[in-house]
Amino acid sequence: MPVRSQETQWHLLHRGHLPKWLVPAGPADTTPPVISNGQPAGTLPAGTTQTSMSVTTNENATCRWSNTAFTVYAAMTNAFATTGQTSHSATLTGLVNGQAYTRYVRCIDPAGNANTADYVISFPSRLRLLRRECSLSCEMASKCGRR
Prior knowledge:
This protein is 15% helix and 29% strand. By secondary structure, it is an alpha+beta fold. It has a domain at 35-133: Immunoglobulin-like. The chain has a four-stranded antiparallel β-sheet with strand order 4-3-6-7, with no helix packed on it. A three-stranded antiparallel β-sheet has the order 1-2-5, with no helix packed on it. The longest helix is centred in the last third of the chain and has 13 residues, at 131-143. It is elongated and about 65 Å long. Residues 129-133 have low confidence and may be disordered.
């Protein structure tokens, strides 16, 4: 790069034509992404065997999840299928009626700042009464004189 005099640099600066080699670097990014809006929230309907899990971050990030609390980001093996921007989603399969599920999420930004605390997503799956159980209850109620 050619060396320019201070006077030339001053003119470039005040005309809005400052070359990149003169632009001071901004402050370094030292904070991890903020995770929010975890889904699913609430109880899943009876019969649900899969659901979408999603989070948002306040900056571009890559997110992962674990079944185990306090797992560091680098050790998490479950990656979100859609990630890298500010919206992240994954499909959870193999869900069973009547079970409660908890997933622990952590993300890392392009500067390498990873979450050091879990973002927790918890959701139960509603237990479905089987027809047989319902019919037995009805039979018992009629034998007892109740309807």
